[in-house]
Amino acid sequence: MKIAVCLKRVPDTTTKVTVGPDGKAIDEAGVKFVPNPYDEYALEEALKLKEAAGGGETVVYCLGPEAAQETVRAALAMGVDRGVLLQAPGSADGFEIAKALAAELRDGGYDVILFGKLAVDDYNHQVGVMTAELLGLPCISAISRLNISGGQAEAEREIEGGIEVITCSLPAAFTCDKGLNHPRLPSLKGIMAAKKKPLEVKPVTLGPGTIATVAIELPPERKPGKIVGEGADAVPELVRLLREEAKVI
Amino acid sequence: MNPMSRILAVTEQRDGTLRKVSFEVVTAGRRLADRVEATLDVLVLGGGPVSGVERLGEYGADRVLAARHAEFGLYNPDGYAATIASVAGDYRVILLAATATGRDLAPRVAARTGTGLATDVTEIAPGPDQSFVVTRPVYAGKALQRARLDGKPAIISIRPNTLQPVEQPRPGDLVELAVPAFTAKVKVREIKAPAEARLDVAEAPIVVSGGRGLKDPANFKLLEELADALGNAAVGASRAVVDAGWRDHGAQVGQTGKTVSPSLYFAIGISGAIQHLAGMRTAKTIVAINRDKDAPIFKVADYGIVGDLFEVVPRLTQEIRRLRGEG
Ligand SMILES: Cc1cc2nc3c(=O)[nH]c(=O)nc-3n(C[C@H](O)[C@H](O)[C@H](O)COP(=O)(O)OP(=O)(O)OC[C@H]3O[C@@H](n4cnc5c(N)ncnc54)[C@H](O)[C@@H]3O)c2cc1C
Ligand SMILES: Nc1ncnc2c1ncn2[C@@H]1O[C@H](COP(=O)(O)O)[C@@H](O)[C@H]1O
């Protein structure tokens, strides 16, 4: 089975966000970058699918700056066979990213293409589904369970107050949610092996798109709150405040 | 018809009934239509009659477009996307809801229309040269992005729970919309009930969340009782307890869980890690109950009680029940 995973380099989730000098991006000074957490579910699923199929190839695609080579290596250390870095600065328009990924994936002959359901930086929640649409592939998004057999896929995705059961046939694309699996940690052997695995770097140029960031701002600070009191005796006062001051109950 | 003068709002139905979020999208559409002097069409996709459609006019629909198809009872990704794409050229703006369905559907519509998509938008304003400027949370709500949209149409998904549906009567004339031919490459077979039949944390007006301080999964009963006493409340969880298998991952609030903005959020036995705060800091009122007075959660809480949750929570449930006249 031939499987592709699209992986984005994002700031670590513990990052304290500050706005950069141009007011249009976050300040990257001192920020640690990691593989997008949802993409780790995609990577794990790819490795599991290849293991279950008893053979094939896993390839990771990342569109990002030169420094994203490190992100691709992290995927190779988990066990992915080879990596491709589409070197470009990125775009505020997810559709432009999708076009670049689709152009690269189109002739790859993949049975399965995996994405994260969203990237924790731009929260766009779109690139996977758009890429699949551009490729004309069936796509099931935000899956928390996947079962593939005999060229058919059955997946589950959580919706408000329920779980949708969805089927399609391969080749197909999926975007992965938490709950799908438990991503493995790279072993020392994996980290060593990753250094020798093929990593191709291809410069790409993105179109201008129709979406541009005008400003990045910090959300308004929450007004400082108050400690109502200690222990169960503080409960009546809390209830009074919720009723009379906050007017929420 | 001049597309610059029309806006389309896409609704969502489940089991033949319009969902509340649909009226939020219609309200957003009406507001925008008034600001740019456009008319508002509201699209309903369904397998048969959909209840609630008769009220769309009250919320500001100039016209209601009904797209009926035997396979539209459940969400049909390819069919829904093909239907919207077939009329996309008639509109200046297409609005959807950033729900589970909308998050799947909107990128399909954008890709088929060949234009960009702004997701989870909380504000829309007209910008220069017929553009729009939207505001949307990024970095799990740690920052806000203002983005200019030049797409024709501009495709936007609205974050649920950010605005209240407002009545603003318009004719709401019903028009049938022909469904184009499509191939259903993916098929929704059924909707299974979740393990627990409770409100979803992303949609509930009140969320009662618990963390590792609960000590044992069985103790979540305390939070369920509080949620029941409050009514209209969902039970959420920190990642620590979801990863420990105490709660379903659908209940997780935070950076890798759900982002919620209820009117009232309780953080009980939750320390307030940055990834948790990312998911709930936009709640209107936050209450923290924690025995550690230095827990970071108190920095974002409007009201805090320092104390043992096993004493505070039962008392709180009792007081709420009394208030509701049941205890
Ligand atoms: C990539 C990544 C993504 C993450 N995403 C998320 C996410 O989406 N959501 C999330 O929640 N976390 C997330 N985390 C985890 C996060 O960093 C914290 O580990 C987690 O939120 C801690 O959960 P907790 O508050 O329940 O547990 P703890 O931090 O252990 O806090 C327990 C609290 O309970 C209090 N307590 C104990 N006993 C009592 C008692 N009897 N009465 C009252 N109070 C009591 C303690 O004082 C303490 O403050 C993520 C981490 C990473 C690395
Ligand atoms: N620059 C990128 N390079 C590779 N994959 C990406 C990139 N941006 C987004 N993706 C993929 O698309 C998913 C959704 O991203 P987004 O639509 O930006 O939230 C991510 O989880 C990745 O799998």
The N- to C-terminal Cα distance of chain A equals 55 Å
Output the number of helix runs of chain A. Answer: 6
Shape of chain B: elongated
Number of strands of chain A: 13
Strand pairing plus helix content of chain A: what structural class? Answer: alpha/beta
Q: What string gives the helices and strands of chain A in order? A: EEEHEHEHEHEEEEHEEEH
Keywords:
heterodimer, A: 249 residues, alpha/beta, 9-stranded mixed sheet, two-stranded antiparallel sheet, 13 strands, globular, B: 327 residues, 7-stranded parallel sheet, 5-stranded parallel sheet, binds flavin-adenine dinucleotide, binds adenosine monophosphate
Structure in words:
The complex is a heterodimer of chains A (249) and B (327). Chain A is of the alpha/beta class. Helices cover 27% and strands 32% of the residues of chain A. In chain A, the strands form two sheets. Chain A has a nine-stranded mixed beta sheet with strand order 9-8-7-10-6-1-4-5-11, with helices on both faces. The radius of gyration of chain A is 21 Å and the shape is globular. The model of chain A has no long low-confidence stretch (mean pLDDT 96). Chain B is of the alpha/beta class. Chain B is 25% helix and 28% strand. Chain B is built from eight helices and 18 strands. Chain B has a seven-stranded parallel beta sheet, sandwiched between helices. Chain B has a five-stranded parallel beta sheet with strand order 15-14-16-17-18. Chain B is elongated, with a radius of gyration of 21 Å. The N and C termini of chain B lie far apart (61 Å). Classes of the chains: A alpha/beta (249), B alpha/beta (327). The site of adenosine monophosphate has 23 residues of chain A, from helix 1, strand 4, helix 3, strand 6 and helix 4.
